[in-house]
Amino acid sequence: MNQFTFKLKNKIFLYNFKLNQHTGKECSERIVETPLAFHFLNMFDHKNIIEIGAFTPYFLDEVNHKVYDVDDPHPVCDRTDLTETNFSFKNKNVLIISTLEHIGFGDYNQKKQLDKSINFLNKVVSESDNYLITWGCGYNTYLDNYVETQFKDYIFMRRISATDWYVDDKNKSLSSVKYGTPYRCANGLVIISSLNL
Question: Which domain holds residue 123?
Answer without folding.
Answer: 5-193
